[in-house]
From TrEMBL:
Belongs to the protein kinase superfamily. It holds the Pfam family Pkinase. Transmembrane segments: none annotated. This is Mitogen-activated protein kinase kinase kinase. The lineage of its organism: Eukaryota, Viridiplantae, Streptophyta, Embryophyta, Tracheophyta.
Amino acid sequence: MDWRGHTIGHGASATVSTATCRWTGDTFAVKSAELSRSKSLRSEQRILSSLNSPHVIGYKGCGVSLENGTAMYNLMIEYAPDGTLVDEIRRRGGRLDETTIGHYTCGILKGLEYLHSRGIVHCDIKGSNILLSQEDVKIADFGCAKAADEASIGGTPMFMAPEVARGEEQSFAADIWALGCTILRCPLGRPRGLMNRPHFTGLRFRARCLGFRRSCPT
C-alpha cells in the first residue's frame, strides 16, 4: 500500500500506522486488522463515526484494502503527533506537575461528559488511550466502547471499577473510576516491582473484588 507510512503502535487486535492522503497531503492515522478478524475494529468505526467532539479523536473514514493477498479492514482517524499520555509522562521524567495534570484531567472529563451524554461508555480509559494534540487531550481507542444499556464488560483489569471486576455492570461510573486510576499515575510515575506490573496488579485486583483469599505474596 503506497500511502501507508510507518507503524506507530500495536493494539490487541489491530496495528496503527501513519498514512497520507494522496489528494491533500494530510497525515492521518490508520488502524488495520485482517478483515476476518476485524469485528472489534468495525464496532469502533460504528461508534466513532457518530461522534464529533474536540476531546474525542476524529473519525476520517474506513475501507478495505488488499495487501500481500490479504484483505485488510482500515479505520482512518485523526493523527495525534504528540503521542499518548503515557508517552508524555515518560518525556517529563516519569511524572507530571499538578498544573499539567489538572489541564489533562479537565480535557478528559469534557470528553467523557460528551460520550456519556450520547449514551456511550468508553470502558477502557487509561493513559495509553489518551492522545495529545497541540497540548490538548483526545480520548481514543473505542474497541471496548458500548452503549450504556448493553450488558457486555471489557477493558483493562488494573483500571476496572470493583463492580466491573466482579462482572456485575459497566456504567458511566466505571469510566470515572478508570479516569481516577489514570490520573493517579501521573504524579507517581510507573509502578515498580514485579507484583506491581499491570498483569499482576490486574489479577490481584480482580481476585480481591471477587472475594478470593489472598494467597499470593506481595
